[in-house]
Specification:
Blueprint lengths: L6 H5 L3 E2 L10 H9 L11 H14 L3 E5 L2 H12 L4 E6 L3 H4 L4 H6 L2 E5 L9 H7 L9 E8 L9 H13 L3 E6 L2 H8 L3 H5 L4 E5 L10 E5 L1 H13 L8 H13 L4 H16 L5 E2 L8 E5 L5 H9 L3 E2 L7 E4 L6 H25 L1
Parallel strand pairs: 1-11, 3-4, 3-5, 5-6, 6-7
Antiparallel strand pairs: 2-8, 7-8, 9-10, 10-12
Length: about 350
């Protein structure tokens, strides 16, 4: 598996499709950082942090919010507040909070995960959740929390689905947490306000360093008492920060300048998917292209060679198999899409030429 490029090629990278986390703050965002009024956030005295928290809480339709360094820490703090040791959270088996956060809930919180199989679009069903909730029995952990995600690998979870899942959980006395790392992408795709997507859930973690392009930061939103407890959880996890306004300023800048352009990423992903699908050797999941992600299979034996071929031309892609995830973001334009399509076509032309020579 090819995992990188030389320092020379890395410096000259012309397009990076590995993730929307690779963006770098531009001049406007850096200026906002430099000019941000700051204070000691542990004392609650950083005005820029307070403004970011109030802004995101208002957008999500929640009473309060708390700024975190990362989405992983935000999710874990939410789990620690919602659940006690020996209790259980239910989540999709492919959801980030279960499969990609190092088992933090179990390791640090003594909280048991109960994963469920996700459907084709990344969703769960009310029947699955209902069946997963444990009866009052000393043999079982106490089912305390349902964890949802939106988007799931770029797939938008509908309002109706989230509403129904949350209703089942609430009817059984469970709370509901939403990992909204890319929830703004879902809101744009659905053309609905963020507050509507967050209305059925008790807490939501909103990442700023993915589609919105900040260098760091996530905001956890929920009820006032929940956020008060989350402050303690954040401290336990080592996340109390001081003059954090220089980071929060990036989030405020992103909400004003980068949020309105998310639809451009979605349009470029669709254009990229259509271009790749026109290449006979590539298999593209066209039905999965709902936001800023494209999943494409270059065929057996081509993943590493294709990655190396593109890297030599300043194009970075990930190495997943069988489907490579390609992500569009604010640090690319239509020219980057054209560059990747040209590179992929060039790779297969070269591969075909080698095959003819060998035969």
């Amino acid at each position: 598996m090819y995992t990188g490029m030389s320092q020379e090629n890395e410096a000259a990278a012309r397009a990076d499709f590995r993730s929307d986390t690779v963006t770098r703050p531009g001049a406007g965002m850096r200026a906002a950082m430099a000019e941000a009024p700051v204070g000691d956030d542990v004392y609650g005295e950083d005005p820029t942090v307070r403004r970011l928290e109030e802004t995101l809480a208002g957008m999500a339709g929640k009473p309060a919010a708390l700024f975190f360094p990362s989405g992983t820490q935000s999710n874990l703090a939410a789990l620690l507040v919602h659940c006690r040791r020996g209790e259980e959270y239910i989540a999709g088996g492919g959801y980030h909070i279960f499969s990609n956060e190092a088992g933090g809930a179990a390791v640090l919180g003594g909280i048991s995960p109960f994963p469920l199989a996700c459907g084709e679009t990344g969703g769960l069903t009310p029947a699955q959740v209902s069946a997963a909730i444990k009866p009052e029995d000393s043999h079982y952990p106490v089912s305390r929390l349902l964890c949802l995600e939106n988007t799931v690998s770029g797939r938008v979870q509908s309002l109706e689905r989230i509403d129904a899942l949350a209703a089942v959980a609430h009817d059984s006395g469970l709370s509901v947490h939403l990992d909204g790392a890319r929830v703004f992408n879902a809101a744009v795709a659905l053309d609905r306000p963020l507050a509507r997507l967050c209305a059925p859930v008790d807490s939501v973690s909103i990442c700023l360093s993915k589609g919105l392009g900040t260098p760091v930061g996530t905001v956890l939103c929920g009820a006032e008492d929940f956020i008060r407890q989350a402050v303690r959880a954040r401290k336990i996890l080592g996340g109390g920060m001081r003059q954090a306004g220089v980071l929060a300023a990036c989030g405020l800048y992103a909400l004003e300048h980068n949020l309105p352009r998310l639809g451009e990423d979605h349009a470029r992903a669709r254009r990229l998917a259509e271009g790749l699908a026109a290449i006979p050797a590539m298999t593209v999941e066209m039905s999965a292209v709902e936001t800023n992600m494209v999943f494409a299979d270059p065929g057996p034996g081509h993943h590493g060679p294709l990655q190396r071929f593109l890297a030599e031309r300043g194009i970075r892609i990930a190495a997943q198999e069988p489907n490579i995830r390609l992500v569009t973001h604010l640090d690319m334009d239509d020219g980057a899409v054209d560059l990747l399509l040209e590179g992929v076509r060039g790779y297969y032309a070269q591969a075909a030429g080698k095959l003819r020579t060998a035969s």
